[in-house]
Amino acid sequence: MGFKHKDIIGLQGLSREEIQLLLDTAENMKEISGRDIKKVPTLRGKTVVNLFFEASTRTRTSFEIAAKRLSADTINISASTSSVTKGETLSDTARNILAMKPDIIVMRHAASGAHHYLAQRVSCSVINAGDGAHEHPSQGLLDMLTMRQKFGTLDGLTVAIVGDITHSRVARSDIFGLTTMGASVRLAGPPTMMPPGIERLGNVTVCTDMREAIKGADVVMMLRIQLERQGKTLLPTLREYSRYYGLNPENLKLAKPGAMVMHPGPINRGVELSSYVADGDQSAILTQVENGVAVRMSMLYHVSGGELPTE
Amino acid sequence: MNLLIKGGRVIDPSQGIDEALDILVENGVVKALGKGVKAPAQTEIVDATGLIVTPGLIDMHVHLRDPGLEYKEDIVSGTRAAAAGGFTSVACMPNTRPVNDNKAVTSYIIAKAKAEGVVNVFPVGAITQGSKGEALAEMGDLKEAGCVAVSDDGRPVTSSELMRRALEYAKGMGIMIISHAEDLSLVGEGVMNEGFVSTELGLKGIPWAAEDAATAREVYLAEFTDSPLHIAHVSTKGALRIIRNAKARGGKVTCETAPHYFSLTDDAVRGYNTNAKMNPPLRTVDDVAAVKAALADGTIDAIATDHAPHHLDEKDVEFNVALNGIVGLETSLSLSLQLVEEGVLTLPALVEKMACNPAKILGIDRGTLREGAVADITVIDPAVEWTVDAEKLASKSKNSPFLGQKMKGAAACTIVGGNVVFKRN
Amino acid sequence: MAEEKTTILDGAGVKRALTRIAHEILERNKGVEDLVLVGIRTGGVHLARELSARLEEIEGAKVPVGEVDITLYRDDFKGQAPHLPVGKTDIPFVIEKTKVVLVDDVLFTGRTIRAAMDAIMDHGRPDCIQLAVLIDRGHRELPIRADFVGRNVPTSMKEKIVVLFDADSRPTEVVLEK
Questions:
Q1: Complex-level ipTM
Q2: What CATH code would you report for B2-52+374-423?
């Protein structure tokens, strides 16, 4: 059993076994970050380029640490310092980066599908660190790892995801991953933020009322609401959003006792998540961050493996 | 040079003809049409045995990109592509650089087409100056210079008031308006049809309501002003219902669809295929079925390609920044013949929608093989099988979603004004 | 092609060999003070637990057992095959200032041992590392030798040595496959 993909563009299309392998590897890599010498020589001599067309300190840092713990050399290129502002196309940027002979490109891009585009044009591996509203596979994997650590399995779990589903790449990766692994997903959010046909992506139920989604759930995942991105036509105010779609100690009681609260971060305290919940016993938000490095190490490790030899 | 087209199945709905006949062309006009027509000396014989002979096909919606955007296409390459696709006439949209909103540009197009083009080019002028949707263009001048219609194609006339006045004014000038019906505020930043596929791909969607709502506005304004109106590239079930109802009420509305709207669905976008990006976007299975039904019941009058050449650099990019549109001239006939194969249309009905009706709508003296008519003739081989190959396309641009696809049926010979301008090897 | 199997050590033979190794470890280290066992996954871990049990029987004191997975330290990553699943490394004690006895089932090229030593060193600096193996089959490619050997078995490169374990991870037999 091995991971046979050159790239990880999304969790859609990965098999149960492949996701299992990525999670198992991540689990076993957690130990490395607990040592004095937080490093293994596995990717020595490999070059990982972090190509970020959208600002992201958290994901970029997490990928950078992951690469360094595997002894890879990392180069960070961010949109503000790169030539994209000069009107260079993604294709040209990619060609220039290829001249540096990277082994893996970790990219974040605002355009859904940018990674499909890149992966078809470069010989090195491409890992998606978020593309538009499409996928964010490392976040999906770390969410699943965090859930699996608590519940032992993902099979049969009920996960409620609340917020702006339309614009959320996290929601899509979670849906693809979780439903492949046997969990059921309930979505809730204002209808202005619920994309058509989303229930057809897997074992997914759409609820208009957030309480309906949370009721009896094992996990409640709150998505970040960004008024600046979503514009004024989707919501009247954050205040009203918070009243109807925010998680607080009261409505959290509807979930299973001890249900886990998650958030991909960064949190808007008092908007989608009350501080009592974010910092409460049921919150797994910091565990998510911690698992991020291990998951990304696992991804880097497996994409650098390559094809099965043909015998 | 005289021509005798022998032994073909002649289909000319304008005369109700569908039988094996010979056609004699002399001095660029149809001289005789009948059985066993005798050819005078020095007549070139076109053997059409097993082939179909129709009035020259007319594509009433193409973008020739000339003047100004010749790196995508020009009048020479565009008319060659038309000839290869079996078209003897094309109507070219005004979104060139500069926009064809004045007689200088119109005259340039007509002059260049006459000098270097291989098929007839009928320019469509702009409704508004610069197609900016702010002030009416000089429609009288445009008509005099040779424009056969006006349109701001590529974008809608956003202001309802301006559209009302445009319809009224155009009526006075005796020129028809072709509407690009789209509600831009509903389109927003959408890049493909809004539905399951856009949800899965995480791409911003364009709801069908954007086309339906705009179509309804156009239809009501046309009725209110009692003006003729042609709706371009109809793609949705709802817009077709609106047009069908308007026609039933006796409205002077006509419409066209493009081959991709009955051949493809938004599934073609999967993999972020920029050659499946166009405006209006590819829709759903339901819409494809509705387009076919509307072709069959006559709601759709014409098949036009919306031939929209773009350079590779404008398509070989991320999906959301790729330009809208695909080339269509060289695949239209094959895709449309598929409708006959599927039983959606009879061959005569197809010829109506690809030749007779466009001529009628644009008011041009084409679309017939009547004796004395200009000898624009298309000879079709309905059985030939071929594969769409970017290398072999006559168009400068290769942005087709059908590249690599196997096709059946194609133009065998295209005759414009009695001259053979294309012959398939 | 029928495989030929020869038993090199039966159950009793394995037991005797492990008991002898346990005695040798005690003798060399003068008891169990500061002694830890680290098994290489997966066979070496099972054997390390066996050795630990024997050391306790003899000395009456527990010797801690750690496990190391060497996948991430392998030297044969060429990017041509899918990477192997990574096993768990669990060293539940401080390596610093211990005497480590590294345990593996079969000593062959020595490359696994090199990787395991690197892994251990990344966890801390032990006073020394010794090597105990059940079988030494020769063909070393690195300057490595075992301190404690159950049985030396001359082999050809084509042959395979397999240490079999029962459901409770106890060694039952060592076979040579041709």
A1: 0.92
A2: 2.30.40.10
A279 CA: distance to closest CA in chain B (Å): 32
CB spacing of B272 vs A116 below 8 angstroms: yes
Q: Which chains touch A (3 or more CB pairs under 8 A)?
A: B, C
What are the boundaries of each domain within chain B?
A: 2-52+374-423, 56-362
d(CA B119, CA B56): 10
User: Residues, chain B, total?
Assistant: 425
Percent of chain B whose pLDDT exceeds 90:
98
The pLDDT tens digits of the residues spanning B149-164 come to 999 999 999 999 999 9
Instruction: Quote the CATH superfamily of domain B56-362.
Output: Metal-dependent hydrolases (3.20.20.140)
Alpha-carbon span B58 to B120, nearest angstrom: 9
In this complex, whether A and C touch, counting 3 or more CB pairs under 8 angstroms, is yes
Rounded Cα distance between A264 and C140, Å, is 50
Residues A81-129 have pLDDT tens digits of 444 555 677 888 888 888 889 999 999 999 999 999 999 988 899 999 9
Q: Which two tokens stand for residue B186?
A: 């509903």
B330 in Cβ contact with B399 (< 8 Å): no
Mean pLDDT along residues B208-223: 98
Radius of gyration of chain C (CA): 16
Q: CA-CA distance, A234 to A174, in Å (whole number)?
A: 23
Residue B306 annotated in active site: yes
Among candidate residues B101, B266, B306, B376, the one labeled active-site is: B306
Touching A: B residues 91-130, CB under 8 Å: none
Spatial distance between the Cα atoms of B25 and B32, rounded to a whole number of angstroms: 7
The residues with which B238 forms a beta bridge, in sequence order, are none
Summarised one tens digit per residue, pLDDT across range A196-221 is 999 999 899 999 899 999 999 999 99
**Closest by alpha carbon to B131, among B73, B187, B63?**
B63
Distance CA B403, CA B388 (A): 5
Q: Is residue B156 a contact partner of residue B181, using CB atoms and an 8 Å limit? A: yes
CA A111 to chain B, closest CA, distance in angstroms equals: 6
Cβ distance of A117 and B194 shorter than 8 Å: no
Question: Distance between CA B320 and CA C143 in Å, rounded?
Answer: 59
Of A3, A28, A32, the CB nearest to C82: A3
Q: What pLDDT is attached to residue A309?
A: 42
Q: What is the mean pLDDT of residues A228-248?
A: 85
Chain A closest CA to C159's CA: distance in Å? 21
**Which residues in A lie closer than 8 A to residue C38 (C-beta atoms)?**
none
